[in-house]
From TrEMBL:
InterPro entries on file: Beta-prop_ATRN-MKLN-like (IPR056737), Gal_Oxase/kelch_b-propeller (IPR011043), Gal_Oxidase_central_sf (IPR037293), Kelch-typ_b-propeller (IPR015915), Kelch_1 (IPR006652)
Keywords: Kelch repeat, Repeat
Lineage: Bacteria, Pseudomonadati, Myxococcota, Myxococcia, Myxococcales
Domain (Attractin/MKLN-like beta-propeller): residue spans on this chain: 355-561
Keyword Repeat: yes
Native organism: Corallococcus sicarius
Keyword rRNA processing: no
Protein name: Kelch-like protein
Length: 675
């Protein structure tokens, strides 16, 4: 770094950079994980340490409090990554440092406790309202505390643990729960041990891991686990050392990495340890290259961890930074395709291979070539070419294992009605009857009962006015198409999901008329060939992705493009009730992502376009419906959209082809799920 820092913050931005602020200085800088370079920024209005920095839903960062003397700072400011500028914000009730800041599901930020001046602990709490850019008071805690932790739970409550009741006062074992809807606090069961200077990490299970800290004047090695479902604590095994003032980072593997800190004295620690939630045990891992305490750490998009700043020895500020590479990273490059292509399709075959067909080359020309990927050898083999070169088509695996390809485009001005079927047993394509209407950007859904394929909507041109309401059915036995009832709304770039009842849910899309981005949803009944409306999406969107969750009772809809650009929002359709409910938002806005339901039941969402300031993405994230949590899932080998995705026999996920600002790409990546 350009500046040595003690007690700084490190915040991962949506553009993949890391914002580092304060640490005994007003200086701020950006780290680019892709190049390893640092970039200076304009200074904050106030020098800060022991402050907080919170990523807001807008992508901006709220910095609160801190101070470089015995008195905390009363000011706060907001960083805008689009302009790399700071804006001051007034309204904190009191100076504070060693407080906590927690982003709530509402988008508000809860500020709790801290040191107001000279070791005076606070019980007060505040809420930052991003829409109003203003502060509001909320109920105080039962106990004043500084040096505590605050963790957002899957149920939306905030768990506050430990801390001190003054700078030299009693170390607390008490815990409290904040309920955002009511703005009130309630006591939680006490921890098994008094703690301050500890860490609290939300695990993939939704439980909270508490590690280390001071109990009175002594460092401790104990750890414990809070279960929100029961409200109880479980004592875990000890860390490999007495440990305090360390950092704790949740890895993409679900493990927790502890770095640096102190064992209660000097020299400070260069040690690191891993907690494995599958075994409930701790183990040492490779040490840091530099001893450090009062440092910061951030999980990078790649799954690596950046550790920076702190104190190496008494009185010695540290400007160094280093990266930890876990033994498990979820993505690895696979063998590249022979030809770069985007807007392609990928289908799992009965043999376990993956058929990739068609797509567009750089410059927009359609491709007819097709290949099959073998996971066991990480190799591609040629198979027969499509009869018609095409992109933006659909490919549907039929009940007999064959693959039906429909429609698409031949070039920027030619829409296709042709369809063909791939027979994996012979590796050949057969032309079948044409669609009744030329179309691209449509959906094609296998109907479980009849084995027919339902094709819906799409477009016959590049404008929203060319969106289609028509639908047709493919009979796999005869190779023919027949019209079925039209949808109530024309739509392209929509999504369709088959339900256990046999009905098909269609939602969103780019439509005709004044409501060009539609929230409407409807259900197709195969028995009658008719559509009926159901509740609309909570957010109008197109270019989104939708999957049936493992319980068969809910459909998850993610991302897409709305009236204000790329969307972070996600929502769930309750099949039994016919209603939609908003769920936790993505970490990053995503237009035209792809998704797969993993063997664990979690949902992997891959890349897409992030909209203004983000461009094409290389990141992925995983949704757990049980905890309503999104967690980072690493980065692919390259920024990528318009790719194809298929789940492999092993449960891994293949992502092939796609495009970015350099054009179509031939690369492929394989994702290994966390068990």
């Amino acid at each position: 770094m350009a500046t040595a820092r003690v007690d700084p913050t490190a915040t991962l931005l949506r553009n993949g950079y890391v914002l580092v602020t304060g640490g005994g200085t007003s200086a701020a800088e950006l780290y680019d994980p892709r190049t390893g370079r640092w970039f200076p920024l304009g200074a904050m209005a106030t020098a800060r340490q022991r402050h907080t920095a919170t990523l807001l839903p807008s992508g901006k960062v709220l910095v609160v409090g801190g101070g470089t003397s015995a008195q905390g700072a009363a000011g706060s400011e907001v960083f805008d990554p689009d302009t790399n500028t700071w804006t001051g914000l007034n309204g904190l009730d009191l100076p504070r440092s060693q407080h906590t800041a927690t982003l709530l599901p509402s988008g508000q930020v809860l500020i709790v406790g801290g040191d107001s001046s000279f070791g005076n602990a606070l019980a007060t709490a505040l809420l930052y309202e991003p829409m109003k850019n203003a502060w509001a008071t909320t109920s105080p805690m039962a106990a004043a505390r500084l040096g505590h932790t605050a963790t957002l739970l899957p149920n939306g409550q905030v768990l506050v643990t430990g801390g001190r009741d003054s700078a030299n006062g009693e170390v607390l074992s008490s815990a409290e729960l904040y309920d955002p809807p009511s703005g009130t606090w309630s006591p939680a069961i006490r921890m098994g041990t008094q703690r301050t200077g500890h860490t609290a990490t939300l695990l993939l299970s939704g439980q909270v891991l508490i590690a280390g800290g001071f109990a009175g004047s002594l460092a401790i090695a104990t750890s414990e686990l809070y279960d929100p479902a029961t409200g109880t604590w479980t004592v875990l095994g000890n860390l490999p050392s007495l440990w305090v003032f360390h950092t704790a980072t949740l890895l993409t593997s679900g493990q927790v990495l502890i770095t640096g800190g102190s064992n209660g004295g000097q020299p400070y620690l260069d040690r690191a340890a891993l907690y494995d939630p599958n075994t409930g045990t701790w183990s040492e891992t490779a040490p840091l290259t530099s001893r450090r305490i009062s440092h910061a750490a951030a999980l990078l998009p790649s799954g690596e961890v950046l550790a920076l700043g702190g104190v190496a020895e008494a009185g010695s500020r540290n400007a160094s930074a280093e990266r930890y590479r876990p033994s498990f990273l979820p993505w690895r490059p696979a063998k590249s395709l022979a030809t770069a292509r985007a807007q392609l399709t990928a289908n799992r075959l009965p043999s376990g291979g993956v058929l990739v067909a068609g797509g567009s080359a750089t410059g927009g020309g359609a491709l007819s070539s097709a290949l099959v990927y073998d996971e066991t050898t990480d190799a591609w083999s040629d198979t027969a070419a499509l009869g018609t070169a095409r992109f933006l088509h659909t490919a549907t695996t039929l009940g007999n294992g064959r693959v039906l390809v429909t429609g698409g485009q031949k070039d920027a001005s030619t829409w296709l009605a042709s369809t063909e079927v791939y027979a994996p047993e012979t590796g050949t394509w057969t032309q079948v009857a044409e669609l009744g209407t030329r179309r691209a950007r449509h959906t094609a859904t296998l109907l479980a009962g009849s084995g027919q394929v339902l094709v819906t909507g799409g477009a016959t041109g590049s404008a929203a006015a060319s969106s289609l309401a028509s639908a047709e059915l493919f009979n796999a036995s005869t190779g023919t198409w027949s019209p079925t009832g039209p949808m109530g709304r024309a739509r392209a770039y929509h999504a369709a999901v088959p339900l256990p009842s046999g009905e098909v849910l269609v939602m969103g899309g780019l439509s005709t008329g004044t409501e060009s981005i539609t929230p409407s949803a409807e259900l197709y009944n195969p028995a009658t060939g008719t559509w009926r409306p159901t509740a609309p999406l909570t957010t109008a969107r197109y270019g989104h992705v939708a999957v049936l969750l493992g319980d068969g009772r809910r459909v998850l809809v993610v991302g897409g493009w709305g009236t204000d650009g790329a969307l972070r929002s996600a929502e769930v359709y309750d099949v039994g009730r016919g209603t939609w409910k908003s769920v936790a938002s993505l970490n990053t806005p995503r237009y035209l992502p792809h998704a797969a339901v993993l063997p664990t039941g979690r949902v992997l969402v891959v890349t897409g376009e992030g909209g203004s300031g983000l461009g094409v993405l290389d990141s992925a994230e995983v949704y757990d419906a049980g905890t309503d949590m999104w967690t980072p899932a690493g980065t692919l080998s390259m920024r990528n959209t318009h790719h194809a995705l298929a789940v492999l026999p092993s449960g891994r996920v293949l992502v092939a082809g796609g495009s970015n600002s350099s054009g179509a790409r031939a690369g492929a990546d394989v994702y290994t799920p966390v068990r």
